[in-house]
Specification:
Strand order of the largest sheet: 22-23-26-25-24-27
CATH topology of the largest domain: FAD/NAD(P)-binding domain
Mean pLDDT: 93
CATH superfamily of the largest domain: FAD/NAD(P)-binding domain
Oligomer: single chain
CATH class of the largest domain: Alpha Beta
Bound molecules: flavin-adenine dinucleotide
Number of helices: 9
Shape: globular
Low-confidence stretches: none
Distance between the termini: 67 Å
CATH architecture of the largest domain: 3-Layer(bba) Sandwich
Structural class: alpha/beta
């Protein structure tokens, strides 16, 4: 009888654990090993901010029961992988041990993009990030009420870091290089609503404010850039990069620009047979044909499941389905579903459709940080972006898939609303605009 295969998974977070569960469902006999340096049990990285505030413990964020590993007969190794040899089919651990595999899944996620300031990482306790558990612990230990902190980078991680540091009582500067906040997801008008809201909490939120580096003056750290700002701490939130540094020279092809593992449609490495990648570290094909990592929670889950199916020989073609995401900018809800174009540069771009044949319907509720933007093409709705109210993205995704016309969607918007008993019902305002793309 042939020996049961050994599937090794590097990474025990959403992509890794979903792959392991899928593998076990497909093969009761296989040996499945999960390796992780960070924590022995998957936790919701998206909840780092609640852990920082003490609202959730690490255990609260564990999304599977602790007996899962025993029930599913997963082996666990708490160690860091330092190298992979795809020819010998083995991985090397920091402890010196080696583990042989039949198939290998790289589900190693991301790490914070480092700030390119010479000497910044040599300054003790000065420069922080907000991506991993050690990042959280280091920031938690360093951030004291009354200190002054700069959060550099206007994305989702930056706004969460700024919020929790402000709540702890640090004087918080939120410094954004771009002319508007989060331009990949918000247009200029939406971004201005968010920035105003953040400022209304007392956070010093500055757009168009690149920081080039820092200098020491009289024992203090002074940030250099558009303005000089004296701070005790910095949180670098200028994005994340695949945590694939340890694969350099292994023969597993990495994308030169992103560092993502180059994969085919079935998430198998393009250069190392038997090696697969899923989650934040995988270079995948986007619906527009471009290739880069997706780096969000639910696509990591879906890729983990797809890669596992490919590892047991299924004919897999991974493509992301209809996009959705949700977040909070301080207490402003953000929900998006379907296709929303990134902001075009310049203030005139507010509500600008992406091109000829496209339309943008937009409204802002007076006196509230609440907006709705609906993008359509030829009158058929393609995507939604909304601030300041909870929406059911599942309903919106269904409408995009059903190719609903704009007028029909506006008439049915209430069906996608949550919390109608707490908020005024949705209505189309007389100030709503419909802009045609040129
Ligand atoms: C603060 C924050 C907020 C976020 N908020 C959202 C959100 O609101 N919505 C959303 O969709 N996404 C959000 N994300 C992104 C989301 O968390 C990631 O897309 C997701 O965690 C990626 O999952 P993954 O399994 O690919 O990798 P990760 O969750 O990054 O896990 C990587 C795993 O690999 C292990 N590992 C890495 N390298 C090695 C090695 N060399 N040896 C051994 N083990 C290794 C780690 O220990 C870990 O177990 C947020 C991320 C952060 C940091």
């Amino acid at each position: 009888m042939a020996e049961a295969p050994h599937h090794v998974i590097i990474g025990n977070s959403i992509a890794g654990i979903e792959a392991a569960i899928t593998l076990r469902r497909r093969d009761r006999a296989a040996k499945i090993t999960l390796i992780s340096w960070e924590h022995a049990h998957p936790f919701a990285r998206v909840s780092l901010m609640y852990m920082f505030c003490g609202q959730l413990s690490l255990k609260d964020t564990q999304f599977y029961p602790e007996d899962l590993y025993d029930r599913m007969r997963f082996a666990r190794v708490l160690d860091r992988v330092t190298g992979v040899d795809p020819v010998a089919r083995s991985v090397t651990l920091l402890s010196g041990a080696a583990i042989r595999y039949d198939t290998l899944l790289l589900a190693v996620g991301s790490t914070a993009r480092r700030l390119p300031w010479p000497g910044a990482y040599d300054e003790p306790h000065f420069l922080h990030h907000f991506v991993t558990l050690p990042d959280l612990r280091a920031l938690d230990a360093a951030a004291k009420k009354g200190m002054s902190v700069a959060v550099i980078g206007g994305g989702l991680i930056g706004v969460e870091a700024a919020e929790v540091l402000h709540l702890r009582g640090l004087k918080t500067h939120f410094l954004i290089r771009e002319p508007s906040y989060f331009p990949v997801a918000l247009d200029v008008a939406e971004s201005e609503v968010v920035a105003r809201h953040i400022r209304s909490h007392g956070v010093d939120c500055r757009t168009d404010n690149p920081v080039d580096g820092f200098l020491r003056r009289g024992g203090r750290i002074v940030l250099r850039g558009s303005d000089e700002i004296e701070v005790d701490l910095v949180v670098g939130a200028i994005g994340v990069v695949p945590a694939t540094g340890f694969l350099a020279g292994s023969g597993i092809a990495l994308n030169a620009e992103t560092g993502g593992v180059e994969t085919g449609d079935n998430l198998e490495s393009t250069s190392a047979p038997g090696v697969f990648a899923a989650g934040d570290c995988a270079q995948v094909t986007w619906p527009d044909g471009s290739r880069r990592p997706e780096q969000i929670w639910y696509t990591s889950r879906d890729q983990g499941r797809a890669a596992a199916a490919a590892m047991v020989g299924d004919d897999v073609k991974y493509r992301r389905g209809t996009w959705y995401n949700s977040a909070k900018f301080f207490n402003v809800e953000y929900t998006t579903a379907g296709y929303i174009p990134p902001a075009l540069p310049g203030p005139a771009s507010a509500g600008q459709p992406p091109g000829e044949g496209w339309q943008t319907w937009y409204q802002q509720v007076p006196g509230r940080a609440e907006t709705q933007r609906i993008v359509s093409r030829g009158g058929i709705v393609k995507g939604f972006n909304a601030l300041g109210r909870r929406w059911d993205h599942q309903v919106w995704m269904r409408w995009v898939q059903e190719r609903r016309p704009l007028q029909w969607v506006l008439e049915h918007m209430k069906e996608a609303g949550f919390d109608e008993e707490f908020t005024e019902p949705f209505r189309v305002l007389p100030t709503a605009t419909l802009t045609e793309g040129a």
